[in-house]
């Protein structure tokens, strides 16, 4: 039986419990729940996970204009509210093993939850604002993938993060935000990062 509990348009529990007893919460970036994230969700469900992909927007916004999406996110959501909304989802699934997969600001929100002992694993993709929260001491195994940024040098951040226990941080190819957009080049980058995600989750051979 499937139960839905809605708080601020957030689905707290979705598609029951995973066959493997693990719940993955995917946290979107400023563009909202995009088609590529829905595809990732579908692939993870097929591997036996319970997967929740909530919209942090009250109106379930999804758009691809960077400036408009940035303004909308920080006017209507922001990191603090996003953190609290994801905390509600975590609380609703606390009787399963919880894995967070976040993109950009979603990766920052996932990182802020990495010290929460209810979380087993954090996977963060180009979470550049993690640099604003360097004092987090994660208890969850945290895998952080960064793109090179135009506005600052990401290497010192990666070096500092790799000094922490339970953290593996590295550079990946692609520009910040590539996961939300289509195109042949992005398709290749998305496939590569999907393979990294699935390997972390214990699957070495992934068919796309």
List the helices and strands and how they pair.
Elements: E1 6-7, E2 10-11, E3 22-27, H1 35-46, E4 50-52, H2 66-76, H3 78-92, E5 97-103, H4 105-112, E6 119-125, E7 141-146, H5 155-161, E8 167-171, H6 184-200
Parallel strand pairs: 3-4, 3-5, 5-6, 6-7, 7-8
Antiparallel strand pairs: 1-2
Helix pairs in contact: 3-4
What would you note in describing this structure?
There is one protein chain. The chain is α/β, with parallel strands linked by helices. It has helices at about 35-45, 65-75, 80-90, 105-110, 155-160, 185-200, and strands spanning about 5, 10, 20-25, 50, 95-105, 120-125, 140-145, 165-170. It has a 6-stranded parallel sheet with strand order 4-3-5-6-7-8, sandwiched between helices. It has a two-stranded antiparallel sheet with strand order 1-2. α3 crosses α4. The chain starts with 5 loop residues before the first strand and ends in an 8-residue tail after the last helix. Mean pLDDT is about 90; it is low at about 1-10.
